[in-house]
Write a structure and sequence with these properties.
This protein is α/β, with parallel strands linked by helices. The chain has nine helices and eight strands. Strands 5-2-1-6-7-8 form a six-stranded parallel β-sheet, sandwiched between helices. A two-stranded antiparallel ribbon has the order 3-4. β7, α8 and β8 form a beta-alpha-beta unit. The protein starts with 18 loop residues before the first strand and ends with a helix. Bound molecules: dicarbonimidic diamide (C5J). The site of dicarbonimidic diamide (C5J) has 7 residues, from α7. Keywords: Hydrolase. GO terms for molecular function: hydrolase activity.
Amino acid sequence: MVFILAQPYPYPLPKPGQFALVIIDMQRDFLEQGGFGESLGNEVNTLREIVPTLQRLLEKFRQEQWPIIYTLESHAPDLSDCPPSKLMRGEGLLKIGDEGPMGRILIKGEPGNAIIPELTPERGEFIIPKPGKGAFYNTPLEDILQTQGITHLIVTGVTTEVCVQSTMREANDRGYECLLVEDATASYFPEFKQATLAMISAQGGIVGWTATANQVLNALDGIR
Ligand code: C5J
């Protein structure tokens, strides 16, 4: 398995069912015009480049019926799960909870808070709303992983240096093996993405590993 591309890996490789595809925050709020990402001054099309690669990974996982987990950065309508420090942050035109062209920004159930249509989740796939940047804080993710017997995470999504990296660090501290798919993650700031890829696998995989989607798919083809 490609958790180990860079060097010999001394641990047992995961079996089907022990690894999941984790898709972080591929939601309209971040990827479409008029959402939170654009209101913060970002060029949202930068993030869209990874969509075809994500579709290839999804196709493989769906075909094999391997676990797929989506997250959404999402808050309760009364903002009771959004600390004032987060609410006040940012220089954007719109703040969390404000009414935007796709409904209230980053609020559960609003049109902008849905996964983009190209990656719409299917029946049986997990969707985890998360109030933080990391996917473990104040969510059922750990319970789901434990119940399903998942030990290895193949991580994708946006943005590389914020929610993706936070989630990988949280997962690493909890003992999960993590691999970040280099061409299935994106940032509004390409230099931040590159720096994050480098820091994750530095020092012998201090947070985890990285590999391209082709490398991951080739390795997965060898798993039955
Ligand atoms: C951000 C995220 N960047 N999903 N969220 O605020 O990375």
